[in-house]
Amino acid sequence: MNTKIFKHIIPALSLALMMNFTSCIGDLDVSPIDPNLDVVFNQDANFAKIYAGLAITGNQGPAGQPDIADTDEGASGLMRMMFNINELTTDEAICAWTGDTDVFPLNSTKFTPSNGVVLNMFNRLYIQIAQCNNFLIQTAGLSDEKTALQRAEVRFIRALDYYYLVDLYGNVPFVDEVTGIGAYVPERITRPDLFAYVEKELKEIEPALKAPRSNEYGRADQAAVWMLLSRLYLNAEVYTGTARWADAATYAKKVMTAGYTLEPVYGNMFRADNNNSQEMIMPICFDGVYARSWSGMFFVCSFISGDMDLEANFGTKEGWGGNRARVALVKKFANDGNLTNVKDQRAMFWTKDRTLAIEKPSEFTQGYTVAKFKNLTKDGKIGSDPNKQFPDMDFPLFRLAEANLTFAEATLRAGGSKAEAVNAINELRNRAKATTIGESDLTLNFILDEKSREFYFEAQRRVDLIRFNKFTSDYIWDWKGGVAEGTSLPDYLKLLPIPISQLTANTKLIQNTGY
User: Fold this and answer.
1) How far apart are CA 454 and CA 254, in angstroms?
2) Which neighbouring-strand residues pair with 350?
């Protein structure tokens, strides 16, 4: 990856935030930094820390001086929690770690207000919001070109954090740069109102951001805004009760025509040098030397085990096992689970010494191993970490393929051109060497399956299943609800609970229905 921004981050972190945040919002431990404190504000260091917070978990990395106190720092990063919440609860991934009492229940979509993943995700998002608010407070009134751009990007990161809060928790505390200074307990904002706030923020900052593909790698530009807006609008009916399909299609199309191109080989999108891909719109940046985290791409790249010749095949010596594919995911590529004759190059599974069926979720060899992520460059070189632990691969938070599938789904739902929707999908299927489809093949169920084939293990699945009303319904997959053959779930599980510690700290909050 391009390490320029991260070479700045590591020496800057000690200046960026002189105080750690803990787990409560109500008592202001996660409120914006008080400008009256004796803390030296370093603008560039704080700006770098805000981006770094998407990837790493503290000021030292890969561990030490954590952002969140009183928790396992290695499990507190954004990406790791995004994966656990959005993949383990679905038809794609299952985890064998019975000893992890916060993670293992997610296999069965068993959320509780005291679950550590639920709490840490909530805290991570509000810590990032607090850092963004502090930056905006400290730079208020500055109008130079650099600061204006930085402020717009910081507002984008804050909007991204609030988007995840809209999606995961619904009605949550609201704090921006004009609230929360001094003794302040945040007010509760409703899901539709927070949706409107995110939409307004993104539209306001769009003109101030750089044009697509013109900003420094790893930083937000206008295309990142369009991608987030298209995601927001695609799920608007879930979040507000009112569909916005045409808006989702419009913003997805803007991305599709912004000069990005699909990575010619699907698997190369998930290699150590994927920073060179013209498909990448907005990454979360990692680096084997400068941006190390137990929670990021290290975590995702370690879903392999020692029987897979790790260094030669995956460019790492770390094989944690644990997470692998559910039967339902494999069957998206082959109805009988037999991948022998599957031409779709997105079917990247390790089947040797594995069983398709999962009789015991605690057994890692039951279930195919996902072999999608490799700390190897396209020409086979291992990433930059001399210890072969931490990968160079960046996480594709937004990539062009998502715009294609968003456009196809939103166009079909809005009654638009089926031909254009089919073309958008066939661009991806051609890249994957899969059989192309015609207009008669285009259904919403096909699109949902295609999204799984394209984005499995990229922390998107839960959102898609909810939008298609299949997350809790009688659409069944193996071990759904903790039952081997699967079972339907109560609808309240479409939202996570508000963590119990936050309800205790902030009496203005109300627990989500069902918990």
Assistant:
1) 21
2) 369
Average pLDDT, the chain: 92
**Low-confidence winner among 19-33, 53-67, 268-282, 447-461 (lowest mean pLDDT):** 19-33
The three-class DSSP label of residue 424 is helix
- Summarised one tens digit per residue, pLDDT across range 330-363 is 999 999 999 999 999 999 999 999 999 999 999 9
d(CA 226, CA 283): 15
Would you call 135 helix, strand, or coil by DSSP? Answer: helix
- The model's pLDDT over 229-278, given as tens digits with 9 standing for 90+, comes to 999 999 999 999 999 999 999 999 999 999 999 999 999 999 999 999 99
For residue 261, what are its two tokens?
A: 């191109």
Cβ contacts of residue 31 below 8 Å, gap of 6+?
Answer: 25, 130, 175, 180, 181, 184, 186
Burial, 284: exposed, middle or buried (Cβ in 10 Å; 0-12, 13-18, 19+)?
A: buried
Distance of CA 196 to the CA centre of its chain: 21
Length of the chain counted residue by residue? 515
Q: Which residues pair with 359 in a beta bridge?
A: none
Q: Please give the pLDDT value at position 31.
A: 36
Query: Which residue is it, tokens 């990539």?
Result: 399
Contact 369, 325 (CB under 8 A): yes
Does residue 92 have a pLDDT over 90?
Answer: yes
Alpha helix ranges (H) inside 36-98: 43-52, 78-87
| 400-443 confidence digits (pLDDT tens) | 999 999 999 999 999 999 999 999 999 999 999 999 999 999 99
Residue 285 has pLDDT above 70, yes or no: yes
Q: Which helix (H) or strand (E) holds 240?
A: helix 236-240
Element (H, E) at 123: helix 116-138
Rounded CA separation 99/91 (Å): 22
Instruction: Answer whether 428's CB lies under 8 Å from 256's CB.
Output: no
Q: Which of 367, 339, 374 is nearest to 353 (CA)?
A: 367
CB-CB contact of 50 with 131 (8 Å): yes
Residue 423 burial class via C-beta count within 10 angstroms: exposed 0-12, middle 13-18, buried 19 and up: middle
| Phi, psi dihedrals of residue 280, rounded to the nearest 5° | -75, 125
Give the number of other CB atoms < 10 A from CB of residue 415.
9
Distance CA 494, CA 483 (A): 19
Q: For residue 271, give the 3-state DSSP assignment.
A: coil
CB atoms within 10 A of CB 491: 14
Q: Please give the Cα distance from 276 to 268 (Å, whole number).
A: 10
- Alpha-carbon distance 176 to 426, whole Å? 42
Judge whether 1 and 395 are in contact, CB under 8 Å.
no
3-state class (DSSP) for residue 355: strand
Higher pLDDT pick, 472 / 57: 472
Q: Which two tokens stand for residue 273?
A: 């040098």
